[in-house]
């Protein structure tokens, strides 16, 4: 009788802990691991948001899908990450416009220099194009999970830039292999110095370059601002970003995990955009406290000159089929309609 009573207690105890043991086993042995690389430095708020994304996916998938993050460029520059994705060594990544352009270059219309005036214009045009962009990524072997931003891009320099002509005297960094930036510099008859992003800090330190372009947040995170004294008030573009996985990996996932990645990826992109815009505003305040001088206001820029440069750059990119001319023309028409229906005329803030 006593033995039977003990056995009954044991059975009830096992029944209670069985689900916990099953969950523990699931978390210990995930069915799918998503290795995800990004240039975003560890410890920054954008990186914290991505890591929270990973925790959410792991919890909601009951441990069947887990992220393994590689922040701060430890897997290399974006072209290197894309190469590793093609070989299956990495399954996903957070990319800037530079990497996005190597996948689906028309999407970079959203960061075409001096095209947009404010975030509202960017958001409206992006919403219009997003279904087309998603199809473009899929055709090239990638799944676009979320859209984000790097932020508004400014020039940082050792000597003041008080006009676009002053750029002729600067040793400007060009992100190695970036057709968009190259086309604009070519249109302006500038000769930048081509380097990987991982070589920028050292090159600023040695004097090989004296001018870079970046968002306030990136300039602080990568310590570039410590090697420069000036920052332009005018923003040359609004840098884009995206959360991407390879189709090869995505197609192997069960439909419920695909839906989970899409849903949480979209939400994470929206969070990143909001936080990045806010963090860039905070970074501006910190840069002022660090003693940087702010030069070249939007009103100091010759709009006719900028329009001519944009036309030249757009023509160069169209010849390379990087950004098709019909897309450029359509975007300008959309912006004309937006501006005619709005009283705002302010330039991009940070």
Keywords for this entry:
350 residues, alpha/beta, D-Maltodextrin-Binding Protein, domain 2, eight-stranded mixed beta sheet, 10 strands
Number of strands: 10
Summed up, the helix count is 12
Q: Main β-sheet, in a few words?
A: 8 strands, mixed
Number of domains: 1
Short characterization:
The protein is an alpha/beta fold and 350 residues long.
Topology:
Layout: H1 2-28, E1 32-38, H2 45-60, E2 65-70, H3 78-86, E3 92-96, H4 97-104, H5 119-139, E4 142-157, E5 173-175, H6 179-187, E6 193-195, H7 200-206, E7 211-214, H8 216-221, E8 230-232, E9 237-246, H9 247-252, H10 255-289, E10 293-295, H11 303-319, H12 325-340
Parallel strand pairs: 1-2, 1-3, 5-6, 8-10
Antiparallel strand pairs: 3-9, 4-7, 4-8, 4-9
Helix pairs in contact: 2-10, 6-11
Question: How does this structure look, described?
Answer:
The chain is α/β, with parallel strands linked by helices. The protein has a single domain (29-340), classed as Bacterial extracellular solute-binding protein, family 7 (D-Maltodextrin-Binding Protein, domain 2). The chain has twelve helices and ten strands. Strands 1, 2, 3, 4, 7, 8, 9 and 10 form an eight-stranded mixed sheet that branches. A two-stranded parallel ribbon has the order 5-6. α6 links the parallel β5 and β6 (193-195). α2 runs antiparallel to α10. The chain starts with a helix and ends in a 10-residue tail after the last helix. 39% of the residues are buried.
């Amino acid at each position: 009788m006593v033995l039977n009573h003990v056995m009954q207690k044991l059975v009830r105890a096992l029944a209670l802990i069985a689900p916990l043991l099953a969950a523990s086993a699931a978390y210990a042995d995930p069915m799918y691991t998503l290795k995800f690389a990004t240039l975003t430095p560890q410890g920054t708020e954008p990186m914290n948001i991505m890591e929270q994304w990973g925790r959410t996916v792991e919890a909601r998938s009951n441990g069947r899908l887990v992220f393994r993050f590689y922040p701060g460029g430890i897997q290399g520059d974006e072209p290197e990450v894309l190469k590793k994705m093609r070989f299956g060594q990495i399954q996903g990544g957070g990319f800037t416009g530079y990497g996005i352009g190597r996948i689906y270059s028309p999407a970079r219309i959203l960061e075409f220099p001096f095209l947009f005036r404010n975030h509202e214009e960017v958001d409206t045009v992006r919403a219009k194009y997003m279904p087309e962009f998603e199809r473009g990524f899929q055709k090239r072997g990638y799944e676009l999970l979320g859209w984000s931003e790097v932020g508004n891009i400014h020039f940082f320099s050792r000597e003041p830039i008080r006009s676009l002509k002053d750029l002729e005297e600067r040793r400007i960094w060009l992100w190695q292999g970036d057709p968009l930036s190259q086309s604009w510099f070519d249109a302006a008859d500038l000769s930048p110095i081509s380097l990987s992003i991982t070589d920028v800090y050292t090159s600023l330190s040695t004097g090989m370059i004296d001018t870079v372009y970046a968002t306030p947040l990136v300039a602080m995170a990568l310590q570039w601002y410590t090697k420069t004294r000036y920052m332009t008030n005018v923003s040359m573009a609004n840098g884009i970003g995206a959360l991407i996985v390879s189709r090869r990996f995505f197609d192997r996932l069960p439909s419920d995990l695909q839906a989970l990645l899409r849903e949480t990826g979209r939400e994470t992109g929206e969070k990143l955009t909001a936080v990045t815009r806010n963090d860039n505003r905070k970074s501006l305040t910190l840069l002022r406290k660090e003693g940087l001088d702010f030069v070249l206001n939007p009103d100091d820029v010759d709009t006719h000159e900028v329009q001519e440069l944009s036309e030249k750059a757009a023509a160069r990119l169209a010849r390379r089929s990087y950004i098709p001319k019909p897309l450029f023309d359509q975007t300008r028409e959309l912006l004309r309609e937006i501006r005619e229906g709005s009283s705002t005329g302010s330039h991009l803030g940070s």
